[in-house]
Amino acid sequence: MPSIYKYRFDRHTIYWTLVYLVVFILLGWLLYHLYEGGYLSAWFTSFIVALIALMSLSIPRRIVVSDEKVEIRCLLDITEIRRDEIASVRRVEARRMQWFVPIFGGCGFFGYYGHFIDLRRLDRVRLYASEWRNFVEITDIYEDRLYVSCADADRLVAELTPPGGNRPDDEDDDEA
User: Fold this and answer.
1) Which of 13, 18, 24, 71 has its CA 20 to 30 A from that of 158?
2) Which pLDDT value is given to residue 73?
3) 89: exposed, middle or buried (C-beta count within 10 Å: 0-12, 13-18, 19+)?
């Protein structure tokens, strides 16, 4: 029977989502009145609607852990990691995540998801979070790192820890 970990939006994420939506609506309204419905306001409106639709499809909804794989399910996308390819799993403090900068993805609009760059390690990582806390780092055997957040992060770490424990991590200096 698969385990399901649901995402919850915190107040900070809801606040930033509302800020984004208000800014988009105000810019659309301003362009419409400045250019009286010209091509610029139509282009902007089409662009913003397409951007919101694309970002909405990548909003993380739940993490499903089965015996064979781990799935991060978004509205239309599923990211899968085979359980036998997981090298290590650990909790990560939110202050460690302050060095993450979005490359291609959402940052505050219904969560934090997509491809980010870790400025401390200069490495590309994937992030699927609906709140900026309770982070779990999943590293696979190919050295790819995936960060997720869920309310029950300790249970997720305990369930995903590979048989025999995590591989030795020589980067413990990140916690200092």
Assistant:
1) 13
2) 92
3) buried
Give, to the nearest 10 degrees, the angle between helix 11-35 and helix 39-57: 160
More confident residue, 139 or 9: 139
* Tokens standing for residue 95: 């202050």
Q: Return the pLDDT at 176.
A: 43
The rounded distance, in Å, linking the Cα atoms of 20 and 52 is 10
Q: What is the DSSP letter of 84?
A: G
How high is the pLDDT of residue 146? 94
> Could you tell me how many residues make up the chain?
176
pLDDT for the residue numbered 128: 92
pLDDT digits (tens, 9 = 90+) for 39-72: 777 787 788 888 888 888 888 889 999 999 999 9
How far apart, in whole angstroms, are the C-alpha atoms of residue 13 and residue 1?
Answer: 31
Q: What is the DSSP letter of 137?
A: E
Q: How many CB atoms lie within 10 A of CB 171?
A: 8
Name residue 88's beta-bridge partners.
Answer: 139
Cβ(69)–Cβ(82) below 8 Å: yes
Alpha helices per DSSP H over the chain: 11-35, 39-57, 153-160
CA distance 39 to 87: 52
